[in-house]
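Hello, quick one for you while I still have it in my head. Could you read through the record and tell me how the C-alpha cells relate to the sequence? No rush at all, and the record is pasted right below.
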Amino acid sequence: MSAAAKTAAPAGAAPQGTQELTVFVQNLLQQMQGRFQEMADAIVNRIDEMGTRIDDLEKSIGDIMQQAGIEEGDTPNAQPSR
C-alpha cells in the first residue's frame, strides 16, 4: 500500500495516526457527552412533569374528599379498635 493510500482514509474509517486518533476520540467523547446531556435533560423534564401531575392528582383527591365530607386521616371502611 502506498503512503498516499494510508493517509487518505475514507469517511468513517478508523484514524491512522496518533493525532488523528486523539481528535477522533475527542469528537466521539463530545458526541457522547451531548447525547447523555440530552437524555439527562429529557429525564429531568419527565420527572418534573410527573411531579406536576402528582400534585394535580393530590389536589383533585383532596377536593373530592372535601366534597364527600371526609376529613384527612378518616377511612370509610375503618373498623373501630377494640
